[in-house]
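The data are passed on as follows:
___
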Amino acid sequence: MPTSNEDWAAAAPLYKQVERLTTPPCQSLLNRVSALLPLNSPSTSAFDNGCGTGVLTAVVKTLYPRVPLLATDASDGMIGILQRRIDDQKWAEVTARVVDSRTLDGIKDDSFTHTFSTFMVCLAPEPEKIVREMRRVTRQGGVLGLAVWGDPSFGPFTSPWERACRGFISDYKPPMLMDANWTLARNVEAGLDEAGFKDVEVWEEDLAWRWENAEAVSEYFIDGGNPANLRTIDSFKAQGGDVSQARPIFERIVQEEWGQKNGSVELRALATLATARK
């Protein structure tokens, strides 16, 4: 079930933990998109749809500081953080606005040469509407760059959590967090084709997510307020589970499975990335 804008606003202050994971694939996606249609070409304009705290925006402005860019998100908390980044970094020609990605009200047809969305479509309500709207606002011949999570259950957290919880509730199963139609590579390709994009290219990237230790993983997953994580935690509570009992087992499993020699932890997450043309 998709989460509300208010949920994401509450999670925004700690979203820097996710930025550590999403920055590398955003850089990879930007490179592939710019190879198809250079971002330093004349009359270029970029759109970061579902921008969150501005990871993709930051990557674009670092490499192509003169590109005009509109960044939108449905969460005012996310936009507030991005606006502070814009002011602090003195990024030129960046506009941040609260906009519903399903309608993109106020954005004209054929507005952008480059349209991006990173790790939003898979978590949002009505993803097909969002993708159609992104096509609408992209210029003819323009390029889409899309990134979503490649696992609808988001295994880095849910796999060890499920194992920990089954010690108390033998048939416990965490909820599916995302729509498989917008996570699995073959489905993403089909969805972009259905939306009317052409020259669709889809690939997967295995990402490293490094943490100081298992306790840091647990602190973010259980206490960090991320709406997707809260759904998983609440599903255990709803069946009578005690989080305080499951937590140390979760930490032990994380350390055993992904712990490094220096005590740190390296989780792995799968991303599905795609480029396409209008």
The first strand starts at residue 46 and ends at 49. The mean pLDDT is 93. The longest helix spans residues 16-36. DSSP finds ten helices and seven strands in the chain.
